[in-house]
What does this fold into?
Amino acid sequence: MTTKKKIYRFIVPAILIIAFAAIYYHEQHEKNDRIFLKAEAIQSSFGWGYNIIADKKIYIHQEFIPAIPGKHGFKSKEDALLVGRKVIEKISSNQLPTITMEDLKELGITTDSLAAK
It folds into this structure.
């Protein structure tokens, strides 16, 4: 066997192994970059709140309406989920997950949306 054939016998498999390793690493790296976010409504002593779940772990625990002074829960599960989904929208858009009074107004959350104490 010539020296050239011996070299190809080792180089070609080595290149294939490196290529497969690179593809595998790239796929694993992409999977790790994706995080599944979900809003869950929770009942608290204030009324309704929400958790933002990131890969099955609580990322944000919010028992009361953000941006409103004092600790007031949402009147309904639906209102809590609306705001929770807005937080996810902000996170997905690379924004800070803070909720402003303007956000609440856009979602129709007003002082009438406060849970009764």
Remarks:
- The chain has a mean pLDDT of 83.
- DSSP finds three helices and three strands in the chain.
- The radius of gyration is 25 Å.
